[in-house]
Amino acid sequence: MEINVDTGKIIEKNYELLVLGIFEEEKYQGVNGIINKALDKEISKKLKTPEFKGKLKKTCLLTTYGKIGIKRILLVGLGKRKDFTLESIRIASGSAINSIRELGITSCTFSILGDDTKTPIEKIVENTVVGCELALYQFNLYKTEDRDIRKINKLLFFVDAPKSVSVIKKSISIAQIIDNGVNLARNLSNMPSSDATPTQITEKAKKIARESGMTFSVLSKKEMEKLSMGGIINVSRGSSQPPKLVILEHKGGGTARPIVLVGKGITFDSGGISLKPSEKMEEMKHDKAGAATVIGTMQTVAQLKLPLNIIGIAPLTENLPGGSAYKPGDVLKMHNGKTVEVINTDAEGRLILADALAYASKYKPQAVIDLATLTGACVIALGSFATGLLGNDNDLKKRITSGGEITGEPVWELPLWDDYKELLKSDVADMKNVGGRPGGVITAASFLSNFVDYPWVHLDIAGTAWTQSNAGVKPYNPKGATGVGVRLITEVLRFWKS
Ligand code: BES
Ligand code: ZN
Ligand code: ZN
Question: What's the first-to-final CA gap in the chain, in angstroms?
């Protein structure tokens, strides 16, 4: 989308449609006040109507009947001033842009939402762009009919303080880099497994690395065998697609120790020999969402040229029940030498992550964050509103928790006490790959903790990686993959201090 900035006197403009953010029960200042006066207090009247009231995400369309040059005004509710956050901006702008798309209009102007608040203008602009571009995302690659082509291709920001123009332009370009990263992650996750095999995702990652100035490398099946990566190798055995382990490196931090991101990349999870029920099995194309987020985040941090060394690792494989598939009872030798008894082949994510996490150790990282659609238990525990967080380092947990609050991608901590490790004891190997149904999120993370020797946080995105219905869903998250984690991790890294 093309986004520009305009300044001058609002009353002299003749925009097709202008969006104004309106608080509940407010007096109007700035642009809102000027327009309210010019329209004979039409905004004040609308604020009293029960269907609008300025409530968050409600919209209300006004026609100006030639009273001013601007043809139509879209009011969008910002809610109560005391509850105003960056999330209000994203929700309001997502909601406004969805209404505009419904009108069939292809360009519009935003007066800086909430221009009379204490929030810095660059944050308002950044989050307005994020709300708009994420709301407009559509995955219609495979539609030949009913393809919703209503697009908004031009957005203008009106600001009455010309000295802010360069600041605004900078915020717009940052927001667009972030949005492209989120929408890349959404595309990779939404892609059917037949067109997003480990090999195809590897090729895509290679192209992204070339375009964004990252170093690309990949471990083949043979190399992983040599490295004794028994997790990835065995999970891949039931499929005819070879596994891959993709490594993307952004080198912006001189000699500093890197931060490593690891993402679960099961391109399809049938459960393997411990086959899943067929109901909703199609959703398991999203079991690569963690890898998708890592690739999307790597593109973002590289394009933002962050002054850090960041490495993204994506172990990629299918989990299928083919004739050579691994089986319950098998014992696997992992990359760090530990042995695992397979109880359930559907607990495959932790096996591929274990190898990738153990491999990350060779980079002597200052921190490692993994993202994975790891357990159905996390969906039961937290639903779709929060990502599960577990880890061994309070400082890293704090950084991620506050990043989640700022970006509207909240995380919620569960305990990683040693007691839970008991549940993973095996009679024949160092550990089992499952610890029973109770505390399923925690036993999965406990399993992973056997493979880390650095500050580490695990994010279980099983409930947040894709949306299933429109109920309770944010206006900027269309149905399907959300790209969760790209904005959160980018926020953490943008403001990282070693
Ligand atoms: N990919 C699934 C987890 C999942 C389920 C994510 C539903 C999102 C929605 C994972 O590989 C899995 O199947 N985990 C098992 C673990 C169990 C066998 C211990 C699960 O959660 O049932
Ligand atoms: Zn599984
Ligand atoms: Zn899985």
Answer: 35
